[in-house]
Amino acid sequence: MSELPVPSPGPESIAVVAAACRLPGADNVAEFWELLRLGRDAVIREPANASDAGQPAPVRARGVLSDIDMFDAAFFGFSSVDARTADPQIRLLLEEGYHAYEASGRLGSRDRLGVFASCGMSTYLLNNVLPDPQATQDWTAVSSLNDKDFAATHLAYALDATGPAVSVQTACSSSLVALHLACESLLTGECDTTLVAGAGIHVPQLGPARTTPVALVAPDGHCRAFDADATGTVFGNGVVAVVLCRLEDVLPNDDVLAVVLGTAVNNDGRRKPGYLSPSVDGQRDCIVAALGASGVSPDGIGMVEAHGTGTPLGDPIELQALREAWDLAGATGRPCAIGSVKTNIGHTGEAAGLAGFLKAVLSVRHGIIPPSLHFAAGNPAFDWSDAAFYVPTMAVPWTDEQRVASVTSLGIGGTNAHVIIGSFAHTDRGVRASPRSEGPVVLRLSAASPASLTALAASTRTALEREPSALDPIVNELNHRRKNLPYRAAVSGRDAGEIATALRGVAQPGTARRVRLSGRAVFAFSGQGDVDTAGLRALMQQAELAAHLDRAVVGLDLIERSRLDEWSADHVDDSLAGRTDLVQPLLYGFQTFVVDQLVAGGISPSVVLGHSVGEIAALYAAGMIGLSDGMALAARRGAAMQRHSPAGAMATVLAGWEAVEGLVTGVVVAADNSTGSCALAGPDRAIDKAIKALLRHGIRARRLPVTRAFHSPSMVLAGEEMARLCANLPLAAPRTAMISTLTARPAMPTELREPGYWRDQAVQRVRFRDAMRCVDTDYPGPQTWFDIGLKPMVAHFLRSDAPPGLVGCLTADPSTLARSGVSDILAQAWALGLDITAPAARPPGAVRASLPYPFDRRSYWITAPLHDCDQPGRAPAEQKGLPFPGDAANTDMEMDEILSVVLAAWRDCLGLEHVDPAADFFEVGGHSLVMIALMANLERLFPAKRLPRMSDMLVVPTPRAMAELIGRAVSRA
């Protein structure tokens, strides 16, 4: 095709930033494009059966969807009863609407989201729900779950949309009219983003279709749009959703599928023979209005996606309207393809307009005009000889730099819609594919159920194994464009292979667990003790730690720096732990390096505490001391202890100090670590004797690799030196709370500035056990602890003294960081409920990954009766195991009996087979209407009793709590 000038997208343009669909033969957008590109016919055709005998011309052909009975009720907060009652159109609108909005990357954003939705009459209501007396007892619920008036507001509630939520109904043109209204809403500033969705699902899907005055059905089950042999349409089922925003508001990492250049909607009025007839004048005027709104000449349009139902009368009228509109707009006869998606999937009713729109969007995006099926020769009722239009019977390459298509949708009753769209080049915004960053990445996954998390891990692993180059887009998609859900997992790795391997563990069923969101991170810094020499040696070879240490020693004098010249991988061996003057500043350097890495990854501490010399790193983490000032303090503390204290020894003991103190002599308890751990200090011989005495009593103990007896009287001279050195300690106001392990209470800056504090801190016992309790007392709630030191220490203390709110303890030691940097720790922190910003995440770009949320679908279906006279409903309550009314009247009922009655009432009202006594009413699908029904049920089961008020029942909305309230009420009666 030759190049023609086409107006560039302007301020009135609307961007299509995401789409989702469930259509015949295609469960997603990628499959839909493949179906179109290859020219597949997805309509299922079945021979007539015995029940059709004697009836006029039944046609069993329709585009069908798989698994329309399946739905993720829990995800959308539906009870089992509501899920079974809900029209499949509502259910699939929710799922595909969520998929589209998720793909836009705006879940959880503060944008004003508008929702414009359409669906057809609920044949599920007519054929399945109404014949079941049990299902129709609550008509308010039935109508809100089936009537098309509620389509948009169901989506708005699910997505927390605060813009306009409008259900649009103009018959077959509904969803394209909805798109027009959505564009208007964006341009007038009513909302920032819009979700447009349409559904058309007939139940049963493959029932016989018959020709009526409204719908001419093709007898052979083939839609032959614009063909000489066209005899009628074929129906299909489908759901389509798209997300729009103003082009000027497109985000840097948006993948713009196409641009809406102009839209128009009108009605035929009385310009036609009858109400059900189409009108050339009405359609022509609508097309001309859309062309005017877009500023596009017909010669710039390469493809028309027509309404194209394949009816002998309707197709020629549509063609004539297009010809007249083209002529009025000054077309010069440039060839233009015309086709209809109905030849592939059938007429999807209220979703038909969006189905055609999505076909056009994908065509301009990929630069291919798909074939229109079942076409051999043009309909003779239209003069093709001088028309610009042709029907492509095979895929046509579309090489125009700016590709423009138009879309028509026509509604019975005369409401016409026409939309002009154009392709979009991402280079226009300067957006490029994301460059690869060095270093490991963290990949975050979350879901609303264990099954969905497992499925998401499996699909992500498959995508990476199939296409390793997709790592960057997948990291961007899952880390930055998804909503955080309660079941979490995270993995880290340096490339797609490592990530895929790590995902195998997540993809195993039964591995997922619900997280307790932990907004509180506790940084705990260990003191001098064991050293992970192998890990430290490996880490010292990495440039990041070396650069950090170089920055830290800036404030040291030449003598101090020369002493620390021994810091190198070559000098890291088992003797290092005995060099207090070296190991204490090195410990501080390592711990502050970890702090910086964690903070860069999005984890800032809420509380900090340090064991012995670890308190200096705690000062840094709390924002009270600068990096170099803290290094000077640690270096001078270590040097003072090396120089002013005699040789000594220490032992770690696996028992609390209360059990140890009476069994040993000549030593002191240097550290009260936990109820199951303490440390002893004293002369060499005394420590050896103490260890032997403890072993004789069955208490495990061993020497620590140190050469001084810290936190004992032998530290007095070193403590005095510390007091002198800390006379003018430069401390700032804390940004984060710090718990002192000297006083076991929150540390005040005035206290820490006192020289005597640092003297006592070197000499007196470390009260780590009490400090841990202080964290729990003063800062209750979920906590994730970080054990930061040269070898795991705090994690061992927490095993016997875990606070009630402990979510987990992550160890940040040299081996962990040498292996994968901080990414493994961040991955674990995310899985435990902390929010992170993954390091080395790829910068956003236009390259996107398609990983739709895998809903945890289950079957929810009311089976239609086989015959009009046979309408079985569900068994009455008494037959389902619900206690007979009056059984609960006995005031001598035991609590177990009351709980049994309450559980049965829950099962009945929520439609569940099993209810846990601790289940939360709202988490299992309850809402206000279900609560009203539950209260009515309980009042029937406990006649003549004054039951608790509904508000009281909702304070702790579990069966057990309700049973206890009822039990107290019954006992007072």
Find the structural class using helix and strand composition: alpha/beta
The tally of helices reads 33
Rg of Cα set: 36 Å
CATH superfamily label of the largest domain: Thiolase/Chalcone synthase
What is the topological layout?
Elements lengths: L13 E9 L6 H9 L6 E2 L15 E3 L6 E2 L8 H6 L2 H16 L9 E7 L3 H7 L9 H8 L4 H9 L5 E3 L6 H14 L5 E8 L34 E2 L1 E9 L11 E10 L12 H15 L8 E3 L8 H15 L7 E4 L2 H4 L6 H15 L1 E2 L19 E2 L5 E2 L6 E7 L4 E8 L18 E7 L2 H17 L4 H10 L6 E7 L2 H11 L13 E6 L7 H8 L2 H10 L5 H6 L16 H21 L6 E4 L3 H8 L5 H18 L4 E5 L3 H4 L7 E7 L2 E6 L1 H13 L4 E3 L12 H10 L11 E3 L9 H4 L2 H9 L4 H11 L4 E6 L5 H7 L5 E7 L1 H7 L2 H10 L25 E2 L35 H16 L17 H14 L8 H4 L5 H14 L1
Parallel strand pairs: 3-8, 5-6, 5-7, 11-12, 11-16, 12-14, 20-21, 20-27, 21-26, 27-28
Antiparallel strand pairs: 1-9, 1-10, 2-3, 4-29, 7-9, 10-17, 13-15, 16-17, 18-19, 22-24, 22-25, 23-24
Brief characterization of the structure:
The protein has 973 residues and is an alpha/beta fold.
